[in-house]
Amino acid sequence: MNIAEKPIAAILGRRISTGDGIHMIAKTYEKGVRLDTHMHREAQLVYAARGTMQVTTPKGRWLVPPDRAVWVPALLPHAIDVLADIEMRTLYFDLAWLKREQRSASLDAEFVVRVSPLLHQAILALFDDHTTSERTALLVRLTMLELHQAEDSATFIPLPHEPRCRRAADIVLADPTGDHEIETLARTVGTSARTLSRLFAAETQLSFKSWCQRARIAAAIEKLSTDVNLSVKQLASDLGYASVPAFSHAFRQVTGKTPTAFAEKA
């Protein structure tokens, strides 16, 4: 895989350089756009001020609605799928800058952060037309401090690597609302239900049932983030839940919020 010599968004986007190891890109993408797997020499913080995207790395898949952002370390292969028209704001950090700032080891791995109102405003302020170098430095520092306090994995789906387990996972992800029985999946991918169950637990740190529930809730988050007119009752029915309370309980188990509370923030 080639290393992108400059950020993909820089091709058509608005590029801002701070002159101190950090540059920023503002870019809009339409629903359906895919930025195929690539990597950068810099680490990056990717935020959609509006819209929803999906970020895939070797570790797994994150849904990133507007109240979340994703940290991508340097040289990490990743792809971005635009699920709803987005206004992307991306900050790129040279490794020398990160080293000089003595950032924590948590930035060595990818993760999603919950974007607080403070972090949201700090990121947007970095892109306005009145930013001075002193103000930019303070806003960048504030942004980095907020990252250490906001890690969130509610929208993360770990992806297994073992071939049979990955095939089974892909089948579920292609239809997360389906009623997937592990015995049927095991026969399809050429193994036993016991082996497939063991593989899911070892590769994703989740039971098969819990992993499928996470995939289903991720599908719910995508729908909530891309269809503002969708009712919770209709969503519960579309996802195959017997009732709204059953759906709300499952949703809260994964995200810590009810569907209604999540939709109000998304």
TrEMBL record:
One of its GO terms (molecular function) is sequence-specific DNA binding. InterPro entries: AraC-bd, Homeodomain-like_sf, HTH_AraC, HTH_AraC-typ_CS, RmlC-like_jellyroll, RmlC_Cupin_sf. The keyword DNA-binding applies. The keyword Transcription applies. Keywords: DNA-binding, Repressor, Transcription, Transcription regulation. Residues 166-265 form the HTH araC/xylS-type domain. This is Transcriptional regulator, AraC family. It comes from Bradyrhizobium lablabi.
